[in-house]
Structures are given as C-alpha cells and as structure tokens.
Specification:
Number of helices: 11
Oligomer: single chain
Largest sheet: 9 strands, mixed
CATH topology of the largest domain: Spore Coat Polysaccharide Biosynthesis Protein SpsA, Chain A
Number of domains: 2
Shape: globular
Distance between the termini: 57 Å
Number of strands: 11
CATH superfamily of the largest domain: Spore Coat Polysaccharide Biosynthesis Protein SpsA, Chain A
Strand content: 15-25%
Radius of gyration: 20 Å
Structural class: alpha/beta
Order of helices and strands: EHEHEHEEHEEHEEHEHHEHHH
Helix content: 40-55%
Length: about 325
C-alpha cells in the first residue's frame, strides 16, 4: 500500500508510443514510492494515450490528461496545474528517458537534508533508441563541468558546491529535465514554463528556480538520457538563436536581484573572455594532436571576432551577434 504522494511527476508525451511504457516502468520501479505521475497526452495520433491509460489501470498513482497539441511547455504546465497541490516536490520527466531505480530516493533525500535548497539534481548518461549505452562517461562529465563566476572569472565549479544562478547563466548543464526535483513552492514562485522560448524552456526554468536559491548537486548518475532521430533533428543554428534569446531574457529580467544583476554584468564579459581563450587555443593547438584545418581556423577566428564584439557591447542581444 502506497502512502500519500510527496512527489508529483509530470510526463509530457506527444506521439510517444515507442518509448513511453519503458519510461513509465522506470517511474513505477522507484524505491521511493510516494509519488503521483500525470501523463499529459499532447495531441498524439498514436497509442500514447492507450499506453498511459493501461498503466493507470494497473497503478492508481498514474493519471492521464489529454489536450490538443500545444508543445512540451504547455503540456508541462497542464500537468503541473493538474497535480495535487499537497505534494512537496515536483519533477518533469521526458517521455523517452529512464530513471535509475534510486533516482527519486536520492533527490528527495538531498532536499530533506538541505532545507535551504530549492531543488536537487544529479547526472545522466546517454543511451540509444535500443537502450544501449552511448559514449559512456561523456554526458555525465558534461554535467559535472559546471562553469560559474568567481573573482571576476569563469571557473569550473567545485563538485562539493551546489548549482547556483551564475553557474546556469551562460551554460545549461542541467539537462534533461528529469534530472531535477524541486520544491513545489519554488515552482509556484517561479511561474509556469515559457511556451514562447522554444528549445531552452527547461534551461529557462532552472534559471528562474535558481533565482530563489541554490540547487543541490548530486554527483551520481540517476537518469538514462535517450538520444534518437526524433530528438536529434534540431539544427545547431536554431539552438544558437534560442540561446541568444534566453541570454537576453535572463539578463534583462525584472526578477533579477541587485546581486544577480551584478553577476550577469560581470559574467557576460567574463564569459566572452573565457570563450575567446578557448577558441584561440583551438586555433593554435587544434584538437588534441590533430592540427586545426584552415576551415576550422577561419570559423574559430570569426567566432572570436563575435565574442570581442559582445565583450565591447557589454550585454547580450536577442538577435544578431
């Protein structure tokens, strides 16, 4: 017999029949079992709703909500609004990822012993469409390499310290969203997901939560992040455009405290210097023992020029350089 839910899990699902059952099975298998799961069928034309309905018939902790297709942000918002207001914590799980069996126990435990933290997050490793490991160690290393502002410079953040506003301002290592469990009151204060932002809506949410307090970092792999054709189709150019919009939105937000505004002003310039040094090293040294090609050198020099322009301007723009 399950106790009253302490965690609300929201799973947005659009044409997710291929992987949804395994995702829901990974939720059902959690050693921490005081949860509810709201699956939001976001206008699917396949068996997504039928799979969620079957899970709900076998386990009353699952619920199905259906809506016309509005995108992942609107689906997450709908699931949050449909969740029980009495739960202490909330997590948003993508419909193709898998939690390790102890994921929720680790996240809830971290928040119970860190009452000042607004959330807790761990690390992920990549798997392919068959659930096989992809480049083991690479994605967890990416998650560990948090870059923050200290003494006016961008530095690698110590593993012993929590994730904070200025470690999220310029890079988004806290991805996918199933890595994060946050307090319900923090989500209520931060507001709903921004449907107009696009690809970086989960990064934006992490930033908004981090304005309210620190996010405890757990140096442990708690999730398998599935990479497949459907989530590999986004182009690098589109990603860069959305990141520019997010940087500008964050920088000019009225919700920044005076301290956060100062961190953003210093961090913007420090970030440009960090990228200039990084790209200049790639021009001089190439990649490892491989010398940079003439094309790569030209691209890097153009990118360096763009960073110089951004440094001199002193703030991000939503469009252009």
């Amino acid at each position: 017999m399950h106790t009253s839910p302490e965690v609300s899990i929201v799973v947005p699902a659009h044409n997710a029949e291929r992987f949804l059952k395994k995702t829901l099975d990974s939720i059902r298998s959690q050693t921490f079992d005081a949860w509810e799961c709201i699956v939001v069928d976001d206008g699917s034309s396949d068996a997504t709703a039928a799979i969620a309905r079957e899970c709900a018939s076998m386990d009353s902790r699952f619920r199905l909500v259906r809506q016309s297709c509005g995108g992942p942000s609107r689906a997450r918002n709908r699931g949050f609004l449909e969740s029980l207001p009495s739960t202490r914590f909330v997590s948003f799980m993508d419909s193709d990822d898998l939690w390790e069996v102890g994921a929720l126990a680790a996240l809830v435990g971290a928040l119970d012993v860190n009452p000042d933290a607004v959330g807790a997050h761990g690390l992920a490793e990549l798997i392919d469409d068959q659930g096989r490991p992809l480049a083991p160690g690479d994605f967890s290393s990416f998650g560990r390499r948090r870059l923050g502002l200290r003494d006016g410079k961008i530095v690698e953040w110590p593993l012993s310290e929590p994730t904070v506003f200025h470690t999220l301002a310029w890079t988004g290592p806290l991805h996918p969203p199933g890595l994060l469990l946050a307090r319900r009151e923090a989500y209520e204060s931060a507001g709903l997901y921004d449907p107009g932002l696009g690809l970086c809506e989960d990064w934006d949410m992490c930033l908004r939560l981090s304005r309210l307090g620190s996010i405890k970092f757990i140096d442990e792999v708690i999730l398998r992040y599935r990479r497949h054709d459907a989530n590999l189709s986004r182009h690098a150019g589109e990603n860069r455009r959305v990141v520019r919009r997010l940087h500008a939105k964050t920088y000019f937000s009225k919700h920044n405290s005076p301290e956060q505004r100062q961190q953003l002003r210093q961090g913007w310039k420090a970030w440009q210097l960090f990228k200039i040094r990084e790209k200049w090293a790639s021009v001089r040294l190439g990649s490892g023992t491989t010398e940079a090609t003439p094309v790569r050198k030209t691209v890097a020099l153009l990118e360096i020029t763009a960073h110089v322009v951004r440094y001199l301007r002193g703030y991000p723009r939503a469009e252009g350089i």
